[in-house]
């Protein structure tokens, strides 16, 4: 008979294998290209990481103009230097971070929520916020460093406690150099030590700040300013903060179909009523999906229904977590307060400073929220937990498959268009994200609004409804051809409308139900006269 630890280890490895398999072979997508280009610069210029130029707007800009510190880019560069920058190699790299995240969440859950560790880990891994965002972007590596740091901080282990806390400080330091979203976690670290009455280790909390000071001095030497202080955030007005907070609730609710199970556990006297309401809501969703798929209900109406449902679900999630705060017992529950400060600090940072909301941001909140509500999940009952896990897995897989097809279209079309449009003139590519990487690999020239311009006879290729450069009004062109990919059954759970899973709000859903959305790439021939300016609506409008 297999003992329980061996069985749970096997299931954790199976979870990791499933997540890796769903990601493996996926085309580079969204910010993957930016990270690859930054890494390739750093590979050859490791001492001036922020001076490389990347065209991620209208024209090439130095890396220090963008928000990301280069910690993760060094890891990509080191991997790429020895193994190359192929999709398979990069998939292997991000799978390592997924494994670190899974292992550390499981150990945290075993310590904090006895009996529910495997279930909580499964919910996070199968959640679409994790499965979809496994790409070469920073968010899963960042989550891995947060979980590693808090595991070292909260879970007892062998060896000297001070050494363990030093490693936690280094894990949080790694996180802040992957993404500045770690900054609120750096403040939580000393607060947790104070709550645990371990003030003699408080100096270790200064390690990340010392490293940030050294990083700032490096910045001044390299480009004359401190990168952290030049970071651009979102609208800081009350309206901007409200909009991002509302978007946070919407995104959180869109990827968390398990919330009713938490409500059942939190309010055991109402379990029957909540279970019936949950089953009714699932039935209503199936009817809604069937009506949209058959064309009997407009997608606009469906979007409004989903918008309300997602936001309500997100508000309920946060409300349930808030109700568990042990206001009167804070001296005796320092670990629980560590989770509350972790989640609250990240949520406040995102609401006040994030340039936009996205499910990859929500991913960072899910781990502490699941741990906070873990005891409620234990009281929900086996049937409720099974339903929560099943709905989460189905949604996660469907959205991941949809996103794979979304990314794959641009990978597949780039070499085909380059071959079919090849001739005497230059083929120019407008458009960022994964498209930019694959068009460059296919020999197309990336367009710069204020650089050299296409001349008559050249071809300009541009994906519609995609983040792209605006073509100068002096470039006159005629439409030569359109390449389209019609919707399929696998894209019915649609993530393609302005990359919803990667940038969303209350008004722009992370995902929706659609049988009408068509992916389109347009090819224009530049002419001396008689053509029109190439115009595309600004991204996200």
Please summarize what this structure is.
The chain has 541 residues and is an alpha+beta fold. The protein has 19 helices and ten strands.
Mean of all residue-level pLDDT scores? 91
The major beta sheet can be summarized as: 6 strands, mixed
State the low-pLDDT regions, or none: none
Into which percent range does the helicity of residues fall? 55-70%
> Radius of gyration, Cα only, in angstroms?
24 Å
What is the strand tally?
10
How much of the sequence is in beta strands?
Answer: 5-15%
Question: Please, how many helices?
Answer: 19
Q: Ends: how far apart?
A: 59 Å
Shape: globular
User: Strand order of the main beta sheet, please?
Assistant: 4-3-5-9-6-10
> Structural class, from secondary structure content?
alpha+beta
H-E string: HHEEHHHHHHHHHHHHHHHHEHEEEEEEE
